[in-house]
Amino acid sequence: MQLTVSGHHIDVTDALRNHVSEKFDKLQRHIDHINNIDVKLVIDGHVHKAEANLHISGADLFAAVESEDMYAAIDALADKLDRQIIKHKEKHRGH
């Protein structure tokens, strides 16, 4: 799994990068074929946004979350993608 973390109006520190890595490593427990993940962290005024494109075999998943705290946004983003992966896996299980 290739993980790319970029920032817009924010310096992506090692702490942020490690937090993203820890949260997104948990996504692999549901599916093994994650090719790459592109995470974009954005600060727009007082709003912290986290967006991710997840490329897996058979689909490209996208999620975006806004919060007042960047760490909370990353946590919510990982949860959203986790639910999308489960839904995708269940949808394709019957075929």
UniProtKB/TrEMBL annotation:
Keywords: Translation regulation. Transmembrane segments: none annotated. The keyword Cytoplasm does not apply. InterPro entries: HPF/YfiA_ribosome-assoc, RHF-like, RHF/RaiA. GO terms for biological process: negative regulation of translational elongation. GO terms for molecular function: ribosomal small subunit binding. One of its GO terms (cellular component) is cytosolic small ribosomal subunit. The keyword Aminoacyl-tRNA synthetase does not apply. Coiled coil: none annotated. Belongs to the HPF/YfiA ribosome-associated protein family. Short HPF subfamily. Associates exclusively with 100S ribosomes, which are dimers of 70S ribosomes. NCBIfam families: yfiA. This is Ribosome hibernation promoting factor. The lineage of its organism: Bacteria, Pseudomonadati, Pseudomonadota, Gammaproteobacteria, Cellvibrionales. The gene is raiA.
